[in-house]
Write a structure and sequence with these properties.
alpha/beta, about 200 residues, 6 helices, eight-stranded mixed β-sheet
């Protein structure tokens, strides 16, 4: 069974909106104000290399599909060649290679994808999709790169209304000279089910 991993850039107050600055959020690009160092870059590359598939919401998918096919290097090569699944009711003909659209029965289809995947399924960005995954209790691991800033307003990673999910802090470390913190949480019942 696949391990569904959500990876996000977040502020101290839980905002994850527009970390790269490609949207119209007033603080867009806020992650670029901090140096996550080589350790942070290595962490992001390693999690990508470990993934067997990528699951994305439409908005994140379209941003990635516009940016990555024209790039090269280990990160771009892996992302461009990996299997990608995009959840969308409006996207019908994806142009990015190795993409499958999930348009109906989202929770059932993602559950099926987890059952059919041996390794990691990586979800980056994709706020609406992440909310759906959390509500359906499909997230096995949450990887946060927490930047030392309070944004005060914006879309939060975990909106009001999500039922309680019990997690366990599996790892934490600081990367880069600016105090960016990597926090990895796993389902609290993961150890019990693995025993």
């Amino acid at each position: 069974m696949g391990n569904l991993v959500v990876t996000e850039f977040v502020s101290i107050d839980g905002v994850f909106e527009d970390p790269g600055g490609s949207e119209s959020y007033e603080h867009g690009g806020w992650t670029f104000e901090y140096d996550r160092g080589e350790d942070g870059n290595t962490f992001k590359l390693d999690e990508l290399i470990e993934a067997d598939a990528h699951l994305l919401g439409r908005v994140t998918y379209e941003g990635f599909a516009e940016a990555w096919p024209s790039r090269d290097g280990p990160f771009a090569d892996k992302l461009n060649n990996d299997k990608k699944y995009v959840v969308s009711t409006t996207l019908e003909e994806p142009s990015w290679q190795n993409t499958t659209v999930i348009s109906d029965n989202v929770v059932e289809e993602i559950t099926k994808l987890k059952d059919e995947t041996e390794g990691g399924i990586l979800v980056a960005g994709s706020g609406t999709l992440v909310q759906t995954l959390l509500e359906a209790d499909l997230v096995d691991e949450l990887r946060l790169m927490v930047f030392p800033t309070i944004l005060g307003r914006g879309k939060r990673l975990v909106p009001d209304g999500i039922d309680r999910l019990k997690l366990k802090l599996a790892e934490t470390r600081t990367v880069g000279p600016d105090g960016v913190q990597v926090q990895i949480y796993r389902r609290a019942d993961a150890d019990a089910s693995a025993a």
